[in-house]
Amino acid sequence: MKQSGKWPRSGFGSLVLIAAVVGGGAAAFAxxxxxxxxxxxxxxxxxxxxxxPGGASPGHRRNHAKGICFTGAFxxxxxxxxxxxxxxxxxxxxxxxxxxxxxxxxxxxVDATVRVxxxxxxxxxxxxxxxxxxxxxxPFFAVSTPQAFHDLLIASGKKDxxxxxxxxxxxxxxxxxxxxxxxxxxxxxxxEDAYHGLNSFIFTDARGGERTVRWSLLPTAQVVPISQxxxxxxxxxxxxxxxxxRIRTAGPQRWTMVTTVADPGDPTADPSKAWPxxxxxxxxxxxxxxxxxxxxDGPCRDINFDPTVLPxxxxxxxDPFPAARSSVYRKSYDLRAAEAGSYPRTGxxxx
Amino acid sequence: MSxxxxxxAPIQRFLHWLMAAxxxxxxxxxxxxxxTVAPRYLPLILIHKTLGVTLLVLVVIRLxxxxxxxxxxxxxxxxPGIKLGARLSHLALYGFMIVMPLLGLGMLWAAAYPVxxxxxxxxxxxxxxxxxxxxxxxxxxxxxxxxxxAVVLLHLAAALFHALVRRDxxxxxxxxxxxxxxxTPAE
Lengths: 351, 187
Description:
The complex is a heterodimer of chains A (351) and B (187). Chain A is an alpha+beta fold. Chain A is 28% helix and 22% strand. By secondary structure, chain B is mainly alpha-helical. Chain B has one domain (10-169). The interface between A and B is large, with 50 and 38 residues. Chain B: It is found in: Cell membrane.
């Protein structure tokens, strides 16, 4: 019937055709939603893999759950203008809100037990554009792909030691991170850590020229390495107390923002690969942390530090992580916003 | 008879089919984007936001055209129950077309996300960040999306039923091109 190009003549044939169109539409919808492909890496699956054995803490971020807010400014020195036409690189002062945090799903974790520390940051340009980012202290990421990150979470959550061995076998890039975790010095202050964006982004300058870059925040505070055991003695919430006290007594803390420009051929899609030494770097400004604020009542709690919220002049590269982080952070935000009663904004219950 | 149109005006038909394609794309993009962490997540969400705002503008134009031109009458031999169902489903479709983009914008505002469309067009927020508002608007946008798709399928099934089984000319009133041998309710 269809081949002759005519509509079906019989009522029954027509009903079959209608049922096929509706059923096919519904099936295509279900497929697109991922219901027919349980193997698809979804934000839900990554969030489930992040959760500790006892389950996630309702109302909190699904990862980097322990943290403390700060406010301050990004002081651009104007050097960035040659790389990107983003307004925040024009010489001047831009308001900044951020959050020091620990790479753990447990908001009550003991500071000395968490190897990875992070910094979430939002810089607002005068025209209302925002630049959000989330950086961590290792100089390269643990794995090459979002799928490998999921596999790492699954393998490290298993009691069976063979699981991690098998994971490392199929993801050899993890070895460098494991070495960093074992050998990199600890500090007893958020102010003494360097934070790295790790993912590559593309800067577009005023003439339309493009460069692939990564950025880092390097501390201006003197770095005093201590052992993990020493840090453990200082108490479970030492880092929050220390940064609060440091800023109260020593004043604002500063980090220099350094952007590194990739050479042709550098691995731009793989944050587990540091770029070789000698790449061109440009100091684009200084992050000044002026005030520490409690997370619960502070201005950072309800910000999703989605690294794909970017101003004109900065966009994502072929690095697959920013998209994955955006998708998972969004889901994490949706969950914690819906659970806000479990972690009310103020100490008292939310109305 | 002479005062009531036999067909929707060409501009109404054009908007109907243009929006039909866009709305179906929107629904598929919506469920697709929230279920992936792949790089396509970012372009999909940008299209979803841009198309959503565009559709909101288009539905306002479409409603104005509907009020201006009216709609052809349904066949007289349709049972009152079916007629009521048709009216309600059309009302629901218009409702979804208006409400869905507003809920989407609202949930982005309530999450303090900047709403940036294709071409860098930024839509200023009219709602402050609010966990409760976000949860409410997000849930409404999500679940109504599935209801919207269900009504679209129902509408499609009804249109095909009119075109293939009843052959009562109802499909022809909105057909994208003039149908040969079409019949009108009066004939």
